[in-house]
Structures are given as structure tokens and as C-alpha cells.
Amino acid sequence: MIKALWFSLPLVAFAVLVLSACNKTDDDLPTILPACIENTIQVLGFEPGAGTHQEMYRGSYRGEVVYYWTGDQIADGWSSLYSADCQLLCHPDGGVDGRGDGRCTDFERSELQLVWEHPR
């Protein structure tokens, strides 16, 4: 009887792990980034002299998936908003006045999901 319990204990533990993994939400799953966004991170995120407050966020703008880059390579530098195929859409903020280039003043930052940040 005791041998049967010791044999079944690992099976029960395995079942608990498998079942708990089924409760994951989309927020728990890793974000798969388009190759061009991965390349952008590699190029911009590790430039010589690049600062450490750089982040890439995934969000939505006018019904499309976009990527919001918050680079700090220079003082008053612009953030950048890219489409999923890496087309630069605009600079939502930054610059001397902090208001970006004025091409996407309706971009909302409230629902962004962090997908990368500079390793500090």
C-alpha cells in the first residue's frame, strides 16, 4: 500500500502542474515579435552610447498593431511608433517641446504591453 502511494505521488504532482498550466492567460504567454522589430531592438538597443532607459511596447493605433520605442540616446530625443512591418509611423512624443512630430497626436499610451527593455 505504501509503495503504491509513493509511486502515485509523482503522477499526482505532474497532473497538478499540467492542469495549472492550462489556466494561463494571453498576458502570461511570451510575445512573438516580428523579425523586423527584433532587428530594430538589436540595432537601436545596443548602439554605442545608447542609454539604458530604452523600452519597446506593443499596442494598438487606429486598429492596427504597433510598436512604441522609447529610446533615450540623446537629450530631447523622440520616441518612435512603428507598424508591425517596421514602417516608421510617427514620433508621438519627445523633441524640444515634448510633443513629438505632430503626426500622431491621437496615439494613446494607456494600453501598452512591455515587450522588451534594456538589460540594466
Give the count of helical stretches: 2
Strand content: 15-25%
What's the quaternary structure here? single chain
CA-CA gap between termini: 54 Å
Biggest sheet descriptor = 5 strands, antiparallel
What is the domain tally? 1
Query: What's the count of strands?
Result: 5
Shape: globular
Q: SSE order, as H and E? A: HHEEEEE
Return the structural class.
alpha+beta
Provide the spatial order of strands within the biggest beta sheet.
Answer: 4-3-2-1-5
Kindly describe this structure.
- This protein has about 120 residues and is α+β, with helices and mostly antiparallel strands.
- It has one domain.
- The protein is built from 2 helices and 5 strands.
- The protein has helices at about 1-20, 35-45; strands at about 55-60, 65-70, 80-85, 90, 115.
- A 5-stranded antiparallel beta sheet has the order 4-3-2-1-5.
- A hairpin with a 4-residue loop joins strand 3 (about 80-85) and strand 4 (about 90).
- The protein is globular, with a radius of gyration of 21 Å.
- The termini are far apart.
- Mean pLDDT is about 75; it is low at about 5-30.
